[in-house]
Design brief:
The protein has about 425 residues and is α/β, with parallel strands linked by helices. The chain is about 30% helix and about 20% strand. The structure holds guanosine-5'-diphosphate (GDP).
């Protein structure tokens, strides 16, 4: 049985917590896209962790953590991340890295910085982890797969030819120091030693795991609105954030994905540039940011303050549809307990016409939020474990949003810990 945990919006919806929680009953957890540019925050008995590369299942002794071929693999960072959790007394996790995963090269990180510098005020707000240059090279067919580290002759030759191209750009476009191919080759030899113990034919491993009836979780990064095709292009990430891509980024048949858990946060937040229709500002935003998540809404990778907004039904309905949602996990609901009234964005006004369909980017930029205000519940809902025990206004908020987005909310997260979860039977859930 394969299940996917993915985001409906701009990322930071709380996927890490939901994956970590679902990992309890899973055998294998797979990262299938993205890189170290985003992070998952997980709170468990070992402490609080921000993971960037490792899947959110590494804290369990019974799971295998897999880095799929679709990931942008930063080898020294993976190595550091493994060390940092083991140092904090987490037992050494079982980790497999796809022999077809491609490697984030040191120059990808530099190119990311140089390009953002060049763009100045028009930059994408990249986390400068090298992700965009990495995926450009992957599709330009000048990337390096992990298995190439073990082909001495081929590697040396390819390093030389790739450096020749990169150095022209470094010199003439960015006016920066050139790459020394010998130095790069020795760095790659170090990478080989770091990654060697984990390298595996991941799709063959997963094929066998499925045959053995194991439960496999695909863990997505970011959310629908950052998808390069279906998101707010060009303010998107460089690999697909959709559950469908899980099949490609892990190397499994698409029909094996039986459950798609789409994570939606009870309010909105976004990082980086791009249209954000339900965005709020000033004191209202500061208060939500300060109270949000677990210790405030600040980037797990960069520490940047996140942009804040009210729940956006238009974006979330679209986000859930593109994911192929079977279940919505509605997270961080406890944070809203301080509000007398809670505005929700139920439509977009574009040139005087109201729509509930998420538009393409140039129309999105013109959209103004149509807000509906719901009464708050004015209490702390942490610790509640049964849906019926939630305050009536809180249930009304959930049920109102469920109706607007049209996908079943079957899990409600009311705190950062694994056990802070309420399961709910939804009228929208197909048997
Ligand atoms: P991800 O990238 O989608 O995993 O999102 P983040 O790592 O940004 O997670 C959101 C933050 O919210 C983290 O600090 C989590 O510990 C925290 N969190 C997750 N679920 C809940 C919840 O239900 N309530 C509260 N208060 N915090 C939560």
């Amino acid at each position: 049985m394969v299940k996917a945990v993915v985001g409906a919006n701009w990322g930071d919806e709380g996927k890490g917590k939901i994956t970590d929680m679902m990992a309890e009953k899973a055998d294998v957890i797979v990262r299938f896209q993205g890189g170290a540019n985003a992070g998952h925050t997980i709170v468990n008995c070992y402490g609080k962790f921000a993971l960037h590369t490792l899947p959110s299942g590494v804290f369990y002794g019974h799971t295998t953590s897999v880095i799929g071929n679709g990931v942008a693999l930063n080898i020294p960072l993976l190595f550091k991340e493994i060390q940092s959790i083991v140092e904090r007394n987490v037992p050494m996790p079982k980790i497999l890295v796809s022999d077809r995963a491609q490697i984030v090269m040191p120059y990808h990180i530099l190119f990311d910085q140089y390009e953002e510098e060049r763009l100045g005020g028009k930059s994408f707000g990249s986390t400068k982890s090298g992700i965009a240059p990495f995926y450009s090279d992957k599709y330009a067919k000048i990337g390096f797969q992990v298995n190439e580290l073990f082909d001495d002759e081929g590697l040396a030759e390819k390093v030389k030819s790739v450096c020749a191209v990169k150095n022209v750009i470094l010199k003439h476009l960015y006016n920066k120091p050139e790459i020394d191919p010998d130095e790069l080759l020795s760095t790659l030899h170090e990478y080989r030693n770091m990654v060697e113990p984990y390298v595996c034919d991941v799709s063959a491993f997963l094929h066998q795991a499925m045959k053995d009836g194991k439960t496999i979780l695909l863990e997505g990064q970011l959310g629908t609105l950052k998808d390069p095709d279906h998101g707010i292009y060009p303010m998107v990430t460089s690999s697909s954030t959709l559950a469908a891509f899980g099949a490609i980024g892990a190397g499994i048949p698409p029909y094996e994905i039986k459950q798609v858990v789409t994570v939606c946060k009870a309010y909105s937040s976004a990082v980086g540039a791009g249209a954000f229709v339900s965005e709020i500002f000033g004191d209202e935003a500061d208060e939500l940011r300060r109270r949000g998540g677990d210790g405030g809404e600040y980037g797990a990778t960069t520490g940047r303050p996140r942009r804040m907004g009210w729940f956006d039904c238009v974006a979330s309905k679209y986000g859930c549809r593109l994911q192929g949602t079977t279940d919505v996990a509605f997270t961080v609901l406890d944070v809203l307990g301080y509000l007398d009234e809670i505005p929700v964005c139920v439509g977009y006004d574009i040139d005087g016409k109201v729509t509930t369909d998420f538009p393409v980017t140039h129309l999105l930029e013109k959209a103004k939020p149509v807000l509906r205000t719901l009464p708050g519940w004015k209490c702390d809902i942490r610790g509640i474990t049964k849906y019926e025990d939630l305050p009536e206004n809180c249930r009304n908020y959930i049920e109102f949003i469920e109706k607007q987005i049209g996908y079943p909310i079957t899990m409600i997260s009311n705190g950062p810990r694994r056990q802070d979860i309420i399961y709910r039977e939804s009228p929208l859930k197909k048997a």
